[in-house]
Amino acid sequence: MKEHPRHARPHITRDENLIFERSSPGKCGVDLPSPEVPAESAADALGGDLFRRDIPGFPEVSELEVIRHFTRLSTWNYGVDTGLYPLGSCTMKYNPRINEVVARLDGLATDHPYAPEELTQGCLKILYDTARCLAEITGMDAVSLQPSAGAQGELAGILMIQACLADRGDPRKYILIPDSAHGTNPASVTTSGYQVKNLKSDAHGCIDLAELDRAMTEEVAGLMLTNPNTLGIFEVSIREICELVHRKGGLVYMDGANMNALVGVARPAEFGVDVMHLNLHKTFTTPHGGGGPGSGPVAVKKVLEPYLPSPTIFQSPDGSYSLDYGHPKSIGRVRAFYGNFGMVVRALAFIAANGAEGLLQSTQDAVLNANYVMRRLQDLFDLPYNEPCMHECVLSDRRQAARGVHTIDIAKRLIDYGFHPYTTAFPLIVPGAMMIEPTESASKQELDEFIEAMRAVAEEVERDPDFVLNAPHSTRVSRLDEAGAARKPVLRWKP
Amino acid sequence: MRYLPNSPRDRAEMLRTLGHRSIEELFSQIPEQIRLQGRLDLPGPLSEQEVLEFFKQAASQSTREYASLLGAGAYSHFRPAAVDALLSRGEFFTAYTPYQAELAQGTLQAMFEFQTLITQLTGMEVSNASLYDGSTATTEAVLMALRLTRRNRVVAARTLHPEHREVVATYLRHLGTEIAEVPYAASGQVDLAALEKALNQQTAAVVIQSPNFLGAIERFSEVAEMVHRSGALLVMAVNEPLSLAIVNPPADADIVCGEAQSFGVPVGFGGPYVGFLATREKFVRQMPGRLVGQTTDSQGRRGFVLTLATREQHIRREKATSNICTNQSLCALAATIYLCLLGKQGLRALAEHNLAKSHYAATQLAKVPGASIPFASPFFNEFVVRAPGNAEALLDDLRREKILGGINLERFYPELENHLLVCVTETVRKAALDRMVRVYQKFSSQKHARAAAPSGVSHPVAQEKA
After folding, report:
1. Which of A17, A216, B273, B354 could form a disulfide with B133 if both were Cys (CB 3.0 to 4.6 A apart)?
2. Does B120 sit within 8 Å of A289, measured CB to CB?
3. Do B211 and B295 reside in the same domain of the chain?
4. Quick one: A219 exposed, middle or buried, by C-beta within 10 A (0-12, 13-18, 19+)?
5. Which residues of B touch A307 (CB under 8 A)?
6. ipTM score of the complex?
7. Average pLDDT by consecutive 10-residue portion of chain B (466 residues)?
8. Gap between the Cα atoms of B61 and A128, Å rounded
């Protein structure tokens, strides 16, 4: 049995059944107040065929058992609070506690979306202020906070491009997407009814201007790009790219997933972007919550403003805030109500806590951290695009693959060293990609420990590849049979 | 900045390691001409104390002192303290999507439990691990039905939440999919004769909400039979799923979707909420969104993983079943914790509590001269009342008594002038309901007194205000 490496800690391995297996009849985790009114027979009120007698299999447990159950489950997770979480492209920053407190304030967490506007000025002001801050940060003219997450922001943006071009009499058919893009980009384009045309990246991992010139035909509505791109590289020709697309009658969509590399440094509106989304759960540190909720505000130039999702919010000369439903050219709603308000509250709290200086320092630290990791690992791991990086860097497993060890195996072994893995196998243009994004939330000390762990794993790959292939060795469960799970899906508990 | 862990010395050392003299050198790839000159114009920086003060000030301009009878797709229910206590564990709320299963068994098992609870409530065989909200869940259900039937026409009840109908329309507009609307009958339920006429061989899906936007519980087995005869799929939207504790689930439906905000998620000015989508096993490969499956590890121990990912955008890109990536995991966790706390007995008792209170309120309001309950169909915690006069004026009177008296339905249904949608949950105490009834009574008697007077003004309260 090997000794645990210095930074590895065994997880709490206490077993915990499914809640359904803890259930026994007659237990309940709440006591309800008296209804104070005469009971109404459900069978009578609903009629015999509508009345439900039982929910078979539904759990019956006490409050304490619920607390213990989910507390135990939580210990099997790893979060930003646990340690370094360098998951590239996902931007796992610290989630400030005060944001959680203010989002839960009585009045903000409790106001109803259909309460009269005069009585919900506090919530409306938060929406208005946040939209204004995001417009300032991106340089854009108008912002809608409605989209539920980045992918829905993408869809809203592409639908706006479609509506605008249709108004000009030529909606066109295709959207160009670089082969390095996030999977949501092509999926959102398809959902919008456009077809995807892939754009091959050049030798530096950037958009190839000649290739773009060829691909940008009169059938192409626009370009959807990520900047910095998913390799963490800033598109140096971004102005020429946007100019070319505009010259040929198209519009430029920017996936703002990597905006955390640019806040306070450069504004997309100023390099030619027409529409973009922001991920409040990335750049503006609203928590990822194990996969959501997100929030994907969409920001536009004047040319697209008439098409924003409805309603928008405005301030009257008397200082009061209102919702405006009068947008005849709007693409319509992309969801009910006004967006993930609770996430907007947290994002505004983050922006206000930082101010312009804090946000700039955050951007600088994120970029410094990523470059530091890249340069201190490039002697042991392949660096496919040797360019200065922005907020994240992409290495590859090329050298380790020669020993039969791949990016996913190295990732799993990192878990034993106490770190969450980097992003594996993305972007797709780098075979065996290892995408590392430390964010500004990593200290030098922590990065040094991470680098040490990565270097130790590289050494293990040379010495004992099988040990790495069987990692992780310290978690509650070892590698799980994913193929088996997909072959015979078990998607629910059954008694 | 208090969130940043690097010291000035750390930064200097790192720059030295990189061979840079200044941090600006790291941004040299960005052409000079597009680099921001000057500083962003933003609020702050604020200390934590100032952040709290700012938001407390905003929170004071709210309806927190009001008794609320607002529902319409966003339901105020009491949230046990244990829900937030557990959600606030950093291991849950600061984790990412559980792609690295060995480090995310907590989230994965909880999502597996969420999926199970949703299938138990809806009577379906499989559920996904959540979608954004009720409106997008319904939209995704419609898109799924279009794929499954390869037909291109949708029939939606007029009593589907109006904003959800708008979202469906936004997503379908460019597909050239026709959306036919089916009116409601005198009962408030979907007009079956009109539905029968609306169906044809091109109909992919029929979308019905129950309880519907007017509060009426639909007779879904009759609807299902009719829909299936035409070869279409039945999509049942449930946006107040607490009703499922005492109302039979729409087990004859093909997809049951909707909003689970009622289960432990704050009403929070419209979001974040938690959409769900459940269906039959045979349709699983056309489902949108994440699915958690049970499996075993190399030593045969039970564990959970994300599965059937070949439906999803990060694998299938433009051929994915949906563009959704981030879902509402933490809200789904809230719902899971909430449902476990209430359990079989608590959920039923709470549903009966809602039923009793809403029926009490409806009965009392029906006694007010000039007021009536226009729809006779069974309802759960929400119903329509015809105001004894101008609805806006009545709402103003109620507001003066610190009551948000409901939603003026004319906003969404022009034909329902002076009709209010009233929702009564356990959060409204009987005293507030009785106060509401007194405002109605006073309003009604003033109106009659005024109507008898020679002035003949049709909007008495507006005049009073002036």
Report:
1. B273
2. no
3. yes
4. exposed
5. none
6. 0.96
7. 97 97 96 95 98 98 97 98 98 96 97 98 98 98 97 97 98 93 98 97 97 96 94 98 97 97 98 98 96 96 94 86 91 98 98 98 98 97 97 98 98 97 98 98 84 45 35
8. 14
